[in-house]
Design goal:
7-stranded mixed β-sheet, alpha/beta, 446 residues, 5-stranded parallel β-sheet
């Protein structure tokens, strides 16, 4: 009887998901648990998209698996929390705390919105005029329901709210760049406002940092894939889809790079806009790639003795050049990598003109003074620069997807952080988009 059961064809409706990033995986989880048959086609050897582990060569010429970039996750990210709960993952939390050596904002021991207000008023290194202007801007944003003019850039909003230039340089610009990965002169304030609504608007608890105790693949992606597989979904890595055609009788045919083809009842294209242009599709995607553009991210990994620690989980340093926005450094000790510091360089900037050796030198020069009273005792043992030329879309005011365009053909859907109506290119937006598409697919059967 067992042999007979194995030969019975799977009659569940099939959904081909092109792209095994967090959007595609989140969509697959919901579909599999609803009784559908999602099959994920991921061209890379491992799933997870840009938030996955990758083999990086260390100072001993050994391949060490580390995150392919840094991703700050906060407790206020509702979809991320939902995803973790659904796959049984608990991420440790730590109070938000950052410093640049002079300024410091710590929420340790604070609770709720009142605690956040007290923390802002007591933040070290901020002049009273800066604190008042900052609070006025945040209260005005909250009073307006976290809504701004659709075409307004972050820089325009900051000027309209009379934010001091020092506060823009040392607080707003680094914060906005880290969230939006787009220079503030171009970035949409509406997307930053949505993130501020769900974090600052939620008080201290929403700003708690979710810190995986290992790389993202081990902490989240692997349990997620296991949950998808247990629910009846399939993940096929190393399989590149080159074309998707709609069938006259319904459904779709997918052509793979190895020359084979497969059919599916429905298709989810969980890819960034520029990747869509590489596929032969039954609809035009060139406008999407042009409208959303792309922005780079570089991560400079610096390896020290295991006893080396940053003064806070997040540290802000001057950019590699005088014209660059200030950069963020994460201490990776909480990921099981003591002594490893990761400097994130976001979006287009003068830093792109420097070669890797000069990037490392400049980052070290800015970081060493924050490592203790005797920075010369902290010798960098190894370094590695990981650059992703097209890491995210450019979160400009015009980079928006019309709701009708998310479903360009019956049974065909677009997913990914860039399709989210409010959020910028974050893991939260990717997961939320995957859930939203799954809900659309399941709706006819409800």
């Amino acid at each position: 009887m067992a042999d007979v059961a194995q030969n019975v064809p799977d009659k569940r409706p099939s959904v081909a998901i092109v792209g095994g990033g967090w959007a595609g995986l989140s969509c697959a989880l919901r579909l599999a648990r609803s009784g559908l048959r999602p099959i994920i086609y991921e061209s890379a050897p491992e799933p997870g998209g840009r938030a996955r582990r990758a083999p990086l060569v260390d100072h001993q010429a050994q391949a060490v698996w580390r995150d392919n970039g840094q991703h700050l996750m906060l407790a206020g990210c509702r979809s991320l929390n939902t995803l973790c709960n659904e796959v049984g993952v608990t991420l440790p939390q730590t109070p938000f705390n950052y410093t640049d050596g002079n300024r410091q904002l710590s929420l340790a021991g604070r609770d709720g919105r009142a605690g956040l207000l007290v923390a802002l008023l007591n933040a070290r290194g901020f002049r009273w005029g800066e604190r008042l202007r900052l609070l006025q801007a945040l209260l005005a944003l909250q009073w307006r329901g976290w809504q701004v003019m659709p075409a307004q850039t972050v820089q325009q909003w900051l000027i309209a709210r009379h934010q001091p230039s020092t506060l823009i340089r040392d607080f707003w610009a680094p914060l906005a760049l880290a969230i939006l990965n787009t220079p503030i002169e171009q970035a949409a304030m509406s997307r930053l406002a949505a993130v501020l609504r769900d974090t600052l608007g939620g008080g201290c608890e929403a700003l708690a940092i979710l810190q995986p105790d290992a790389d993202l693949s081990t902490s989240v992606v692997t349990p997620l894939v296991e949950a998808i597989t247990m629910a009846g979904g399939v993940l096929r890595c190393g399989q590149r889809v080159e074309a998707v055609t709609s069938q006259p009788s319904g459904g779709f045919r997918l052509m793979l790079a190895d020359g084979t083809s497969t059919e599916a009842d429905q298709v989810v294209l969980a890819l960034p806009p520029w990747a869509l242009t590489r596929l032969a599709l039954p609809f035009d995607t060139r406008d999407l790639a042009t409208r959303f553009g792309s922005q780079p991210i570089a991560t400079v990994y610096l390896g020290f003795e295991v006893s080396t620690r940053l003064p806070a989980p997040l540290v802000q340093i001057d950019g590699p050049t005088a014209e660059d926005t200030r950069a963020w450094v994460m201490d990776r000790a909480h990921c099981g990598e003591p002594g490893v510091m990761a400097v994130s360089l976001s979006a287009d900037g003068p830093w792109q003109q420097l070669d890797h050796d000069m990037l490392v030198t400049r980052c070290l020069q800015r970081l060493l003074p924050l490592l203790g009273s005797k920075p010369h005792d902290h010798r960098c043992l190894w370094h590695k620069v990981v650059t992703v030329r097209r890491a995210t879309y450019a979160a400009t005011p015009t980079a928006r997807l019309d709701p009708s365009a998310q479903n360009p053909l019956p049974g065909c859907f677009l997913a990914g952080d860039w399709t989210h109506p409010d959020y910028p290119a974050t893991l939260e937006a990717a997961v939320a988009s995957g859930f939203a598409v799954a809900d659309q697919i399941m709706l006819p059967a409800a």
